[in-house]
Amino acid sequence: MEISDVISVEDVVLDLQPEGKTRLLKALAAHASRRTGCPAAEITSVLAAREKLGSTGLGQGVAIPHARMRGLQRPYGAFARLAAPCPFEAIDDRDVDLVVLLLLPEASPQEHLNVLAKIARRLRDAEVVMRLRKADNAETAHRLLTDLPPLKSSAAA
Q: What pLDDT, in 10s, does the model give residues 55-76?
């Protein structure tokens, strides 16, 4: 399973403006709810429970909040670039500005878990992170995140 199988361009949100970690998770849950049909309150609840186990802030301004969801049929992901960095209790104490939400079905096979590792590896690439921070549209950010080749029209950009 590839990142592009989980995150579509419609699930790229640029310049999100949350006021803190809790509101960020609620905003991501609301978006995910519209796209998956799972209740936003339930998504928020499972994300908050996962964060209590330890922050999903990886450092360098990146976080990957993730959780298993009852009733979810297939993995779902969303990418958000924040308008301004947000406190997230990351391992390096830096605020985050790049966030990938990942929801997995409750009984996820290993193949689904591998996508989390692929996302983490992609977001450890300093060049990718820098370019995601500068992406001028959702399509460009999606291609950077999913490692798809650039569109012909954006090749000159």
A: 999 999 999 999 999 889 899 9
Query: Where in the sequence numbering do the catalytic residues fall?
Result: 66
Residue linked to tokens 């360098």 = 60
**Alpha-carbon distance 21 to 40, whole Å?**
16
pTM score, whole prediction:
0.90
* Contacts for 30 with CB less than 8 Å, ≥ 6 apart: 40
Query: Other CB atoms closer than 10 Å to residue 53's CB: what's the count?
Result: 8
Dihedral of the alpha carbons of 129, 134, 136, 137, in degrees to the nearest 10: 20
Phi, psi of 107 (to 5 degrees): -105, 65
| SS3 per residue for the chain | CCHHHHCCHHHEEEEECCCCHHHHHHHHHHHHHHHHCCCHHHHHHHHHHHHHHCCCEEECCEECCEEEECCCCCCEEEEEEEEEEECCCCCCCCCEEEEEEEEEECCCCHHHHHHHHHHHHHCCCHHHHHHHHHCCCHHHHHHHHHCCCCCHHHCCC
